[in-house]
Amino acid sequence: MTKPFQFKEFTIQQDKTAMKVGTDGVLLGAWCATDTYPDTILDVGTGTGIIALMLAQRFDAMTIDGVEVDENAYEQTVANFEESDWGDRLYCYNSTFQNFADEIADEEETYDLIVTNPPFYTDEFETENDARNKARFTSSLSFLELITGVVKILSSDGKFAIVIPYKEEENFINLANENKLFLNRICRVQGNKTSAIKRCLLEFSFHQTAIKEENLIIEIERHQYTDEYINLTKDFYLKM
User: Fold this and answer.
1) In angstroms, how far apart are the furthest CA atoms of the chain?
2) Is residue 51 within 8 Å of residue 82, measured between CB atoms?
3) With 80 as the cut, is the pLDDT of residue 121 above it?
4) What is the mean pLDDT of residues 117-129?
5) Phi and psi torsions of 109, nearest 5°
6) What angle do CA 90, 159, 95 make, to 5 degrees?
7) Which of 26, 81, 117, 193 has its CA at 20 to 30 Å from residue 55's CA atom?
8) For residues 118 and 52, is the Cβ–Cβ distance under 8 A?
9) Distance of alpha carbon 69 from its chain centroid, rounded?
């Protein structure tokens, strides 16, 4: 039995889903859209609903949607949404992102903020566990499919934020550029000051701006966190 993950203002049940609460999602939920007030928010591949719930805590947005293809993860997200204080503003769709984006585009609706902690690992790492594969691998939603869908349903002044492996940074930024999404902010994340950069937090819009570059180191040593990491996550983690 996987234990629930208790945050300051909400709880994540995660026993039914392949992908558990992790640092990547928390970082993205805390870091994205710091200078905007989105009215409509979408979390793509919401998993347990964690990022959507963080954004419900941060913003007064009346519409916060999740889209999740895996049925177990979808059911878990719905339950986590309903158990939270913001259940009336949170809704999850059980669909592929491609179909969802097409439907939203047909209705001529858009989102002011789209976030995703997407499936990352290429096929050589695929495991026997189908649900975990779906959650972790780009084979179920490629970067190009993701960007194409985002472009269809992001509002003209909207933001799109994603966390990806550092090795994918250049490739992803180029792909976004080709589809008229421009990098506005980037944060490169290291576990500690001697470890390699492992993750990138990226924020895009349809507007070209000076790129704001940041670096974030999570730990000084094991379980001793840097001030930057504490400041970013303290509204969420119980022990910060």
Assistant:
1) 50
2) no
3) no
4) 56
5) -100, 155
6) 45
7) 193
8) no
9) 15
Instruction: Give me the mean pLDDT over the 77-90 stretch.
Output: 95
If we measure between CA atoms, which residue out of 155, 143, 147, 149 comes closest to residue 99?
149
CA distance 60 to 71: 28
Task: Write the DSSP symbol of residue 158.
Answer: E
Distance CA 19, CA 10 (A): 18
- Per-residue model confidence as pLDDT tens digits over 176-232: 999 999 999 999 999 999 999 999 999 999 999 999 999 999 999 888 999 999 999
Give the residue carrying structure tokens 């945050």: 7
Q: Which domains does the chain have, with CATH numbers?
A: 5-233 (3.40.50.150)
Q: How far apart (Å, rounded) are the C-alpha atoms in residues 232 and 123?
A: 33
Q: From 204, 127, 106, select the one nearest 164 (Cα to Cα).
A: 204
pLDDT at 222: 86
CA pair distance 135, 19, nearest whole angstrom: 6
Interatomic CA distance for residues 126 and 133, integer angstroms: 6
Find residue 224's DSSP bridge partners: 221
Specify the amino acid at residue 235.
Answer: D
What's the whole-model pTM score? Answer: 0.90
Instruction: Please name the amino acid found at residue 94.
Output: N
Please tell me the distance from the alpha carbon of residue 64 to that of residue 85, in angstroms, as a whole number.
Answer: 13
Q: How many CB atoms lie within 10 A of CB 119?
A: 22
Q: What are phi and psi of 28, to 5 degrees?
A: -65, -45
